[in-house]
Amino acid sequence: MEWKIKITEEAQKDFSKIEPGLKKQILAGIIKVSKAPLPSPNGYGKPLGNKHNNNLTGFFKIKYRGIGIRVVYTLVLKDIVMNIVVISERDDNYCYNAAANLYKKYGEDIFTDIFQDFPMKTSKSI
């Protein structure tokens, strides 16, 4: 079952700054993970927990090692929604601090279906 993918305004802005070739890889990874975003044994989700003194319990990551990209997401189980919270070309510390700051901004709403649909294209307009 594929989950509906939503994205925060902040992650959308970061995604728009990434070069088109990398956008295709990122999009392919997000779509793959959206088919099974929960942790193993049956899913791709990698829980974050406590990272760099930030409590990110309930957050998951996708790490693209070859291109240095990290995607942080949350899940809305009852609505089958995957919220993309951070898309970052930077290191883990930056990425997890950005996720923690967005958690502070949105509060528990970060675990609800309040964000815009993720555009499933990789044109320059994204």
Produce a short descriptive summary.
The protein has 126 residues and is of the alpha+beta class. The chain has three helices and six strands, in the order E-H-H-E-E-E-E-H-E. The chain has helices spanning 9-16, 20-34, 92-106, and strands at residues 4-7, 46-51, 54-64, 69-76, 81-88, 116-117.
Number of strands: 6
Largest beta-sheet characterization: 6 strands, mixed
Structural class designation: alpha+beta
Q: From N to C, what is the helix and strand string?
A: EHHEEEEHE
The share of residues in extended strands comes to 25-35%
Describe the strand arrangement of the main beta sheet, using strand numbers: 2-3-4-5-1-6
How does this structure look, described?
This protein has helices spanning 9-16, 20-34, 92-106; strands at 4-7, 46-51, 54-64, 69-76, 81-88, 116-117. A 6-stranded mixed β-sheet has the order 2-3-4-5-1-6. The longest helix is centred in the N-terminal third of the chain and has 15 residues, at 20-34. β3 and β4 form a beta hairpin. The chain is globular. The chain has 3 helices and 6 strands. By secondary structure, it is α+β, with helices and mostly antiparallel strands.
